[in-house]
Amino acid sequence: MHDGYKHGYSTRSPNLASRRPMPADFWETYVRIGWAEIREHYATHTRVIRRWIREAGYPELAAARTAYLKAKRDQERPERKRRARLARLARQYHEW
Fold it and tell me: CB 3.0–4.6 Å: which of 2, 4, 70, 78 could bond 12 by disulfide?
């Protein structure tokens, strides 16, 4: 018989006390891995992730994620340019 409890949290009660709390490292983890992988990382439902994002403050969280991605792109830019140049050279010499 299913009693409405799974993993220590009630699946029937909308009571706030029965909801899974936001992990302490949620902000840093979301900024680093983003929406695509956060659900699998915490092994939870999309509704829970959305609630955590609201609790963390969406505008600030989105701005932090954007800044992280920009810094990552800027850091990887020289390597991407080098790979593109090598690919052009490979195509050029392959045509001989």
Answer: 4
Q: For residue 53, give the nearest of 28, 32, 26 by alpha carbon.
A: 26
Query: What is the maximum alpha-carbon separation in the chain?
Result: 73
State both tokens at 5: 């409890």
Amino acid at the residue 17: A
Tokens 């009660």 sit at which residue? 13
Question: Which pair of structure tokens corresponds to residue 36?
Answer: 């695509």
Q: Render each residue's pLDDT in the chain as its tens digit; 96 residues.
A: 444 445 545 455 555 556 899 999 999 999 999 998 999 999 999 999 999 999 999 999 999 999 999 999 888 888 878 888 888 888 888 765
Domain extent for 24: 5-94
